[in-house]
Amino acid sequence: MASLTVSGAGSGLDINSIVSQLVEAERAPQANRLASKEARIQAQLSAFGTLKSSLEAFQSSLTKLQNVDTYNQRSSSLPSDSPFSVSVDDTAAAGSYEVSVEQLATRNKIASAAYADAQTSVGTGTLSITVNGESFSVDVESGSDSLEAISAAINDAEDNVGVSASIVNDENGAQLVLTSDNSGVENAIAVSVTTDLADTGDLSQLSYDPNAGSNPMIEKVAALDSIIEVDGFTQTSSDLSVAGMIEGVTFNLSEARPGEKITLDVSLDTNAVKRAVEGFVQAYNNLNTTLNDLTAYDPEANTAGLLQGDSTTREIATRLRSEIGLNVGSISGDINSLAQIGITTGDNSLLEIDSDELGDVISSNFSAIQNLFANDDGYANRLDNTLDRYTQGGGILDVRTEGLSGQIERINDQREALDRRIASVEERYFKQFTALDSLLGQLTSTGDFLTQQLANLPGSVKQD
Question: Which of 109, 114, 191, 288 sits most deeply, having the most CB atoms within 10 A of its CB?
Answer without folding.
Answer: 191
